[in-house]
Amino acid sequence: MIVVTGASGGIGREVCLALAARGEDLVLTARDRGRLEELAEEIRALGATAAPHSCDLRDQEQVAQLAARILREHGVPDAVLCLAGHSIRRGLAETFGRPHDLVRLTGTNLLGPATLLLALMEPMCTAGRGRLVAVTSASTRIPTPGWAAYGASKAGLDSWLRSLRPEAARHGVRIAIVEMPLVATAMAAPSYGSAPLGALTPSRAARRVLHALDAPRTLVSPPWARAGAVLSQLAPTLAAGVAGRAGAVLLRAAARSPRPTSPAARREGRG
Ligand SMILES: NC(=O)c1ccc[n+]([C@@H]2O[C@H](COP(=O)([O-])OP(=O)(O)OC[C@H]3O[C@@H](n4cnc5c(N)ncnc54)[C@H](OP(=O)(O)O)[C@@H]3O)[C@@H](O)[C@H]2O)c1
């Protein structure tokens, strides 16, 4: 049985459909119960099983209850795929007075997933088997102007998992991280439009997640992100400047593509 967070949309939904085509038993989680139930129906029509459980990862109590329910009703997972995420793009001037952005982003991208993983990882370690895959972002390695809070929350999960990885491996639990580049989903649309320049499609992004699940890989990351990570260490100001300029190119390209209509959605990544 495989647990997928962020199953209700974007990359997570594509991952679930691909796993369903293989006949995997799935536990689907996100906040939107309606979208989870629709996906579960679609998966059952493919001949696989899917159990939808809604949960807000920012609510620690809900996360603890979700973990207990998964273990009680479905047993110890073979794999947990952490795809749920939230993003906010703000420059420094817009960030003043908004420490709650950090609370929101760390809740969804770090504390919620970590709480869920801790609860599920313990019985997985006892069973001596399992696989964890977390989707972080290329901006984890290349700190990028405008994405400070998002990058920090993803970097936190990345560092936490990298530190746990050797001990988890000794218990038979393999941890893989996918540093995802830009993908044309609802998350990217408020900043970069519905068809961002150079973005992956959700199905291509899903293939990266499946590769991390299947292959003995600890890191799935584009070569340019690995090179950017080295540059960030050697010349941090230059690297952030290059990343900022690349972001500006994407924003200019997005100005010519369709935009979401809600002002709130334009200000923030949805999620
Ligand atoms: N799109 C990109 O360009 C990009 C780039 C790098 C990394 N990533 C990462 O890739 C992953 C998938 O993103 P995506 O592009 O597929 O985004 P998306 O289409 O916005 O989907 C995000 C998913 O996370 C769930 N979610 C958001 N907030 C949640 C919360 N508080 N509690 C529980 N679930 C929550 C959403 O479901 P509900 O709304 O139903 O809760 C949805 O299923 C994320 O971790 C994201 O950070 C994306």
β-strand amount: 5-15%
Helix content: 40-55%
Distance between the termini: 25 Å
Radius of gyration equals 18 Å
CATH architecture identity = 3-Layer(aba) Sandwich
Low-pLDDT parts are: 262-271
Bound molecules: NADP nicotinamide-adenine-dinucleotide phosphate
Order of helix and strand elements from N to C terminus:
EHEHEHEHHEHEHHEHHH
* Main sheet: strand order: 3-2-1-4-5-6-7
CATH superfamily: NAD(P)-binding Rossmann-like Domain
Q: Count the E strands.
A: 7
State the name of the first-level CATH class.
Answer: Alpha Beta
The total of helices stands at: 11
General shape: globular
Question: What keywords describe this structure?
Answer:
271 residues; 11 helices; seven-stranded parallel sheet; disordered C terminus; binds NADP nicotinamide-adenine-dinucleotide phosphate; alpha/beta; Rossmann fold; single chain; 55% helix
Task: Describe the structure in your own words.
It is globular and about 50 Å long. The longest helix is centred in the middle third of the chain and has 29 residues, at 99-127. It has helices at 10-21, 33-45, 60-74, 92-95, 99-127, 148-170, 189-192, 202-214, 223-234, 236-254, 263-267; strands spanning 2-5, 25-30, 49-54, 79-82, 130-137, 173-180, 219-220. Helix 1 (10-21) packs parallel to helix 2 (33-45) and helix 3 (60-74) runs parallel beside helix 5 (99-127). It has a single domain (2-267), classed as NAD(P)-binding Rossmann-like Domain (Rossmann fold). It is α/β, with parallel strands linked by helices and 271 residues long. Strands 3-2-1-4-5-6-7 form a seven-stranded parallel beta sheet, sandwiched between helices. The protein starts with a strand and ends with a helix. The structure holds NADP nicotinamide-adenine-dinucleotide phosphate. Residues 6-12, 30-32, 35, 55-58, 83-87, 108, 135, 137, 180, 182-183, 185-188, 270-271 line the site of NADP nicotinamide-adenine-dinucleotide phosphate.
